Amino acid sequence: MDVTLTQTIAAIVMVGLGLALIIAYRAYLARNSERRMLGMLDSLGLDQEIASSGDLKTIMGEARKRCEACTAEDVCERWLRGDEEGDNAFCPNKRVFDILNKYKDGVERV
Predict the structure, then answer these.
(1) Cβ(97)–Cβ(40) under 8 Å?
(2) 66, 90 in Cβ contact below 8 A?
(3) Domain range summary for the chain, segments of one domain joined by +
(4) Could you tell me the pTM of the whole model?
(5) Contact present, 70 and 33 (Cβ < 8 Å)
(6) Torsion sign across C-alpha atoms 29, 30, 33, 38
(7) Per-residue confidence (pLDDT) for residue 61, from 0 to 100
C-alpha cells in the first residue's frame, strides 16, 4: 500500500474519531444539564412533566439552553445534593422556576 494512501486513511480515521469524541462529549453535557434541570424542578416542588409539556415547550426549551450554558454547574450539583445552603439564586433559570412555581396547579400563589 502506498504511504500517501495510508496517511490519508489514518487522517480520515483520526478526524472521524475526533468528531465522535466531540459528539459524545456534547451528549454527556446535555444529559447532565437535563438531569440537573429536572432535579431543580423536583427540589422546587414542580412536576418534572412540566419540562415536556406542550403548553410550556418554548419556555422550557429556553430554560434548557440556559441550563446547558450555565457556568454554576458545581454549585448546582452541591445545592441539589443539599450540600449548599440558601436558595437557587445562582441558577440562570431561577426567575422561570419562580414563575412556574407561582402558577403551579393552575392557581396563582401570591
Answers:
(1) yes
(2) no
(3) 32-106
(4) 0.65
(5) yes
(6) negative
(7) 85
